[in-house]
Specification:
Elements (H helix, E strand, L loop, with lengths): L16 E10 L4 H12 L9 E4 L5 E10 L2 H13 L3 E4 L1
Antiparallel strand pairs: 1-3, 1-4, 2-3
């Protein structure tokens, strides 16, 4: 059980850890670059060359998988909020 005095949110993750994020949006010009800009703003050590891209069967959507080196739960929460708030992003898993 987490120590309430520590002030950290309860999590099953141990930090630092590699954490994959699957980001899905419509396949439009600039989508991948916009997502990578958000990821790099919250995880500056992320190597954008490692992003995995997969188009949907019909080609309307593009899934990006970014595995970031997460330093804290707060970092992951901030990154998730920034991604889900972006107008080009439909889902983040």
């Amino acid at each position: 059980m987490a120590d309430p005095a520590a002030g950290e949110n309860k999590t099953l993750l141990e930090f630092p850890c590699d954490f994959p994020l699957k980001i899905i949006g419509e396949r439009v010009d600039g989508y991948a670059q916009a997502v990578l800009a958000v990821v790099l703003a919250h995880a500056p050590d992320y190597d954008s060359a490692t992003v995995e891209m997969r188009p949907s069967k019909q080609g309307k959507y593009l899934s990006l998988t970014c595995t970031v080196r997460a330093r804290s739960q707060n970092q992951l929460d901030d990154l998730y909020r920034a991604l889900t708030a972006h107008p080009l992003v439909k889902f983040v898993l």
